[in-house]
Write a structure and sequence with these properties.
alpha/beta, Rossmann fold, five-stranded parallel β-sheet, 6 helices, 5 strands, about 10% strand, globular
């Protein structure tokens, strides 16, 4: 079960700072004690991290496509521990969601996201 935040007005939303992309969450699944996990653990508050519904769906689809019960279990466990932002009106992709909410996109795909003007992007896989 994906834990999706209930729709709230913007000022009622928790104060997230980082929107984690698919490749970041995949890294957490593959290496739960790796660099990305240590980076999150060293934040002032692990609850500063969230992801988008699109990313949650991509992870589930990938696990289903592989047909791995173990992978699906790991994906489910991860999605139970991180806030999944709902899709808001006029938000067509997770980088737009991050931009609209003033979040930093955390991704290993800097080339793709760096083309968005004024979007703050960090690579935690480097």
């Amino acid at each position: 079960m994906i834990r999706i935040l209930k729709r709230k007005k913007f000022f009622d939303m928790p104060k997230f700072k980082y929107l984690l992309d698919t490749n970041i969450l995949s890294e957490l699944i593959k290496q739960p004690n790796g660099y990305t996990a240590r980076k999150i653990a060293h934040l002032d508050n692990e609850d500063l991290c969230c992801t988008s519904l699109i990313v949650a769906c991509e992870l589930r689809y990938g696990a289903l496509k592989k047909g791995s019960h173990i992978l699906m279990t790991k994906v489910n466990q991860l999605l139970e521990t991180i806030a999944v932002l709902p899709m808001e009106q006029n938000i067509e992709s997770h980088y737009a969601q991050a931009y609209a909410l003033g979040l930093t996109v955390v991704t290993g795909n800097l080339k793709e996201f760096s083309r968005i003007p004024d979007l703050v992007v960090e690579n935690w896989l480097a």
